[in-house]
Amino acid sequence: MTTQARQTDVSGPDSPQGGGRSATPSRLESFIDAMIDMGQTGQIFGEHGIGKTATFFTHIERAHENTELVYVPAANLTPDDLLVNAPVRDAHTGELVLRQLVMSQLKPGRPFVLLIDDSLQAGDTIQSQLMQIACNWTLGEHDLRALGCVGVFLTDNESLAETSARRSDLALLDRMVTMRITANDTAWRRHLAAKYRPWDLRPVFSLWASLSPALRELLSPRTLDHVLANAKEGFPLRWGLPLVDGERLRLTEPGADGRPGQNRTAEILDRIAESLGVPNPPTVPDPVRQVVRAALRNRWTVLLQGPPGCGKTELVRETVREGLGRDALYFSLPVTNVEDLCAPIPSADGTLENLLAAKFTGPEPKAIVWDEYNRPKDKAAFAKLMEITQEWSLAGRRIANLRAQIAVQNPPYHLGRKLLVARNNIAQATRFTASLEVRPEDIPANEWLLAHYGQDAETVLEWWKHDIDDDGRAWITKRTLERLIKLHRRGLPLEMATVYLGDGEYAPVPLTALMDRLKGRPVTGLRELARDAAAWESRLRRTAETSAEGTDDTDVVHQILANAELSQLKKHRAVVARFVALLPPKLRATYLVGASERQQRFWTEVFVGLRGVR
Predict the structure, then answer these.
(1) Is the N end or the C end of the chain the one with fewer CB atoms within 10 Å?
(2) Coil, helix or strand for 319?
């Protein structure tokens, strides 16, 4: 619940060209004004992401002077948020009596409009409270008109995939004025045109309008906003498409039989990028760090989904610490209670006030990491979490100086096995500006292992890179690699470090080659190349004199350099430069492809140093 206006402005008239403001109000704005004038409860249905809620925030502030908007996200409410019975001392008798306390936001001290958003997603207890408000403008023993209420509105999406109830009681339905709207009834085009100046978005709007209704619903204005935000940062445009139940949303039209038809995702996103004159890269170097930094710059909510044990959370916390100059506020959802976030208490003025956890208060810059995002402890805690991620508020109070929110989760399936994670719907999924599917290779956890475990880490990583196949590497996470090193140092069987599957079965990864390496079997890695640099340099020189394409010796050196970590390359920089000078140019060029900024800087310096050397 909040009474503060959002930053976006989607109210007012709109046109496909994204033109300027007109004196004619939008259809939704006209409806809002009429319901307030008549004192009627208004009910608005429309697809998610078309600007229903944001229109209320901007229009009430602009068109109704000295009137506040009290926003109640019904899907995020718990039973004690609106009304609670509590003992208070009677002002006349001094005795303790039981009295119904109402949420403090419903007593703002001036006229207010009450907006109940996602009302059909509330639980049964909340539904009863909300329906009393909608029908009679009362809550318990409190008359909202006496408190200053001048309008009550309910907004929602009728899709059964997103709601938990349907209104069918005629006695209830007979008390409201209902309007169904589409994206053309809000001013989202004008808002995006202003937000992304100096881009000319008219070609993008024309493209959107040319799509079928089914595709326009999938590529909602909110999702299109996220696609544009990622394009502005130079990220892959698909990051703006939400992850629904762990799968990237596909822009497909339904076939005649109702099943998904042709997947037009790549085509549509490429056409948007072409209209904007920007690239649509398949990926970017160091994607996790880049998107977290963008979140801190732009006040984004970001979702990172990746397999367990690859180092997602630690990298996020490290990047936030570097960018913010302080640690992120960290919450692990499986152990987060409602009381860890806020708690309602009676206040001196006879209202129900929510105390926020101390970490949410204060003017210092903040970023929140929601770990195990799709494994909430209970629905009540997740409801509060949804308020923060969707509205950037907690119990109706804005969190001061909140710069970014990063949610981290596992996919529903990994290595053919189902993980115990919760499902989401499209409305929840589209709240994230960027949604990434993180691969283990996107996380520079190898450097951390090398820094903490030295030569043992080098040996284990060489085994992981060269001795097992892709399936084996999927089973051996960076977390598992650390356990392997620790067990080796204690002389314990390495098998115990791998994932235990039950009935005496461990992860199907052979460990013989690793045990041989740890016992000192001769192997070839960067460390070994450096020890015998003269001999390998001689081999490469002979090869360079006889073949422009290289030989097996060339391939060995190239593969070792390509797989080496940056710290290893820096440690053996002089040897690396001698070897690279003798490699075919086409192999040297591959070291820059997909490399992080720091790796690219290293290789650029090496290549510059090669001028005149052969």
Answers:
(1) C
(2) helix
Which residue in the block uniquely carries the two structure tokens 């140093």? 609
Determine which helix (DSSP H) or strand (DSSP E) holds 102, and give its type and residue range. Answer: strand 96-103
For 427-455, write each residue's pLDDT tens digit.
889 999 999 999 988 998 888 899 999 99
Strand 351-356 versus strand 366-371 pairing type: unpaired
Q: What residues contact residue 20 under an 8 Å CB cut-off, 6+ apart?
A: 190
- Contact indicator for 440, 464 with CB cutoff of 8 Å: no
Write down the pTM of the prediction: 0.80
- Residues 54, 37: Cα–Cα separation, whole Å: 21
Q: Which run of H or E residues covers position 445?
A: helix 445-466
Q: Are strands 41-45 and 176-180 parallel, antiparallel or unpaired?
A: parallel
Check: CB of residue 113 under 8 Å from CB of residue 68.
yes
Q: For the residues of 591-611, what is the DSSP string, one character each?
A: GGTT--HHHHHHHHHHHHHTT
Number of residues that make up the chain: 614
Which candidate, 550, 558, 549, places its Cα nearest to that of 579? 558
Distance separating alpha carbons of residues 205 and 225, to the nearest angstrom: 11
So what's the pLDDT on residue 12? Answer: 37
Q: Do residues 587 and 548 make contact, with C-beta atoms less than 8 angstroms apart?
A: no
**Cα distances (Å, whole numbers) of residue 481 to 274, 371, 430, 449:** 43, 22, 35, 8
Q: Which two tokens stand for residue 117?
A: 């958003």
